[in-house]
Amino acid sequence: MLSQPDGSATFSQGQTSVIAAVYGPTEVRVSRERADRAAVEVVFKPKVGVGGCSARGMEEIIRGLCESVILTSLHPRTLFTVVIQEMHNDGALLACCVNAVCAALLDACAPMNFPFAAVACSVDANGLVTVDPDKTSELSSVSSATFVFDAQDQNLLATSAAGCMTNETLQTCIAACQQASNTVFTLYRQICAKRAAVL
């Protein structure tokens, strides 16, 4: 999508859309240099204005995810920079950002343990679970969560949740999102197959 980064991708889920760009491995400032592995920096840019606490929270979640998935030990004393630009937010923003980042890492041919996919869900007052909710569903829900799974065994890598839910509801949400993640992994495979055919 972009010419300057090492890898980039646009990702849309419903009406939510973001662009992610990956730079690296590149030179790193001495103050941030790590002798045994690469450092990872994540920057989230909202559609308008400056990001607040929620933006910083998303950056931390995605940075932790990237640090655990990228084989940073192969590139010590370097830096991977991930930049995410929000285009439109109609719900499930974190999941959309995570999936855009994974697609951009695949485009950059960054060394990874495995691809990953995020799926969001919300739970209303009646206990009904909605996968990939829009903003209206999120605002009317009593709880919501985003789950990240790996492509290898579909293990749960990360969770971000808001509100209260029972353990039974939590397990239902995880199962529903785990099943939905197959669609994202299929999309990744199609993208990689198309790129391989072009090359």
Rounded to an integer, what's the Rg over CA atoms?
17 Å
CATH architecture: 2-Layer Sandwich
Give the ordered list of helices and strands.
EEEHEHEEHEEH
Helix content: 25-40%
Biggest sheet, spatial arrangement of strands = 1-2-4-3
DSSP, total strands: 8
| Distance between the ends | 16 Å
By DSSP (H or I, 4+ residues per run), the number of helices equals 4
Low-pLDDT runs of 5+ residues are none
Please name the fourth-level CATH homologous superfamily: GHMP Kinase, N-terminal domain
Average pLDDT confidence is 91
| Domain module tally | 1
The fraction of residues in strands falls at 25-35%
Biggest sheet, open or closed, and with what strands and sense? 4 strands, mixed
CATH class: Alpha Beta
Indicate the overall shape.
Answer: globular
Under CATH, the topology is which?
Ribosomal Protein S5, domain 2
